[in-house]
Specification:
Length: about 220
């Protein structure tokens, strides 16, 4: 959308080869639009080059870089193009966080989980991460959590439970993530939340040296890396 590429919702399920695209979870990017060249650059796979000069960016197929399943669709495929996607359609609206008396969990597989983690650490919260997967009960149902799952216990904090809950809700809103509440550390499968495999995360602190002996171009490259 930043490049003014028109994108539409998929209004009916579609299967192409091994990929299954579900209504409400997939998008259609047409080539019949003003930004056709940008669309082509993002999705096509270039495997041969006419020029002898080759850059690393020559093969940056953006969909592959982000690990997004996609397929090129020919005119012979019956495609159900829905409404055009607008910027307000992309605003994340996570469900309200339920206050817990034991702990909160954040799935590390989510793209903005690191944003939530840094926010909580900046609010003086203690956060732990799981080095092994587990399954526990969330809202009365069994749910699997993988490696890196963040655990924020209520009791193990230098801030009050109310301050922690406020920080948790703000982290959810800031990152757009659903944060899960659990009532016990005894899990259904895998390690328990009190296990030695659930370890404290330290607040990252980065230092970048500049000045004599450091090229300004190198410093700029690291700063924006």
């Amino acid at each position: 959308m930043k490049h003014r590429i028109e994108t539409y919702a998929l209004s009916a399920d579609l299967t192409i080869g091994a990929n299954k695209y579900e209504k409400g979870k997939a998008f259609v990017v047409t080539t019949d639009q003003t930004q056709y060249r940008m669309v082509r650059s993002m999705f096509e796979k270039v495997t041969s080059f006419y020029d002898s000069v080759f850059y690393d960016a020559s093969t940056w197929t953006m969909a592959l870089a982000y690990g997004v399943p996609y397929d090129a669709v020919s005119a012979s495929v019956k495609l159900s193009k829905g409404d055009k996607i607008k910027s307000q359609d992309l605003v994340a609206t996570p469900p309200p966080v339920i206050k817990s008396t034991y702990a909160y969990l954040i799935d590390w597989n989510e793209y903005t989980a690191s944003r939530a983690l840094y926010y909580l650490l900046s609010k003086n919260g203690y956060v732990k991460t799981a080095f092994k997967p587990f399954a526990t009960t969330v809202n009365g149902a069994k749910r699997q959590f993988g490696y890196g799952t963040l655990m924020i216990s209520v009791a193990d904090q230098d801030i009050s439970s109310e301050e922690l809950f406020t920080a948790i809700r703000e982290a959810s809103a800031t990152s757009g993530l659903e944060i899960y509440s659990v009532a016990t550390g005894f899990n259904l499968e895998g390690v328990d939340l009190g296990s030695g495999n659930v370890r404290t995360v330290q607040m990252p602190k980065v230092v970048m040296l500049i000045g004599d002996g450091v090229a300004s171009a190198d410093a700029g490259a690291h700063w924006f890396c």
